[in-house]
Each structure stands twice: as C-alpha cells, then as structure tokens.
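Hi F.,

I've been meaning to write this up properly since the lab meeting, where we talked about keeping a consistent format for the predictions we share between groups. The idea is simple: the sequence comes first, exactly as it goes in, then the structure tokens exactly as they come out, then a line or two of notes. No screenshots and no reformatting. I'm using this chain as the first example so we have something concrete to point to.
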Amino acid sequence: MEPQFQSSFIPKKSVDSGIRVVDAKHPTSIFSVLVWVVVVVTIATSAGVFFYQKLIENQISQAEKNIVAAKDAFQPDTIQQLLNVSNQLAFTQQLLNSHILTEKIFDTLAALTVKKISFTDFTYSDLGGNPAISMDGESQSYNALAEQYDIFNGSGSILSPQFSNFNLATDGNISFKLTANINPDLISYPKSVEATVSQ
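Output, unedited:
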C-alpha cells in the first residue's frame, strides 16, 4: 500500500479561524436618531426666529417712517391754525346759543296789550334760565285788566301773569304792577333762526 501524503500545503477543508467578516454599515440606535432630529429642529427653529425677528424689525422701521411722513404731511402749523379756528367757532356757537332777543318781548307785548292799558317801568331778569319781566302800568278799568290777564295767560309767550298793587289814580285810572315769566323759546336766538329757516 502506498502511503498517503499531501502534495500541497493547501488544506482540502476550509479552516475555521473564528474571525467573522462584518458588514461595513454601522448599526444605528433610536437615541442617535432622536439627537439628530432635535439638532435639526433646533437649528431650523433658531433660523426661523431670527428671520421672523428681522421681518418684525423691518415692519416697525417702515411703520415709523410712515408715521413721520404722515406727520410731516399734516404740517403742525396748519393743525394749530385749524384748532384755533375750531375753538373760535365753538366760542361763537356758545355765544349764539346764549344770545337772547329782548326785542321779541316788546313785539309780543305790543301785539297782546289791550288798548285801555299802558305799561311803564319795564324790568327784565333771567335767573337760572328762567326769564321774567316786571312792569308798572295803568288801566282804564278792571274789566280791561281781566281781559289783559286772559290774553297773556293764553298766549304761550307770557307765562303765569300776576297783577298786584292796585291803586286808584287821581285821573280815575287804576295803577298796578305786573310780573310774569317769559317763554325761553320766544327770546332764544337759535329758535328764532330755526323758525325763520322753516318759513
């Protein structure tokens, strides 16, 4: 029998050396993925905040420029002049509203006075927006006084007429004193203007 020997130093069976070939890819964990996500989100958020801040600053700057331009367009001198005119108009309006037409009282008395009565010593007063008159007068009879009372009382212009201090004069006439309130609308300038315009 011939002896068996190996003609080559290369073994016929593969030798297990215990060394494993590992894939070149590195294993990834959830923790590293989360870290990268947080980093990317942080960078994106920081960039967004930065650009938003710049946008707001630009808008504020533009608004300030617009305000300055609008202020310059109105011209402070012109505004002051307009305010002065407005104040003068308000003062004039106040004067007109408080102005009274006393001649209306005389016109009304002339139209409503009975022929047998004459008035003297006219006094006008206005306390707290309640205009009133006081007059001395003479009447040829008591009937004329009664007629005069009815006319004044029903006129709507001479309010609450009161006759007092009756005395018989030497010529036979009756002297008296009349006090009465005046309807404020009768002597109001604005009311008079409204009545004129509506006619």
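Notes:
The domain at 100-198 is CATH 3.30.1360.100 (Gyrase A; domain 2).
The chain has a mean pLDDT of 82.

If this format works for you, I'll send the rest the same way.

G.
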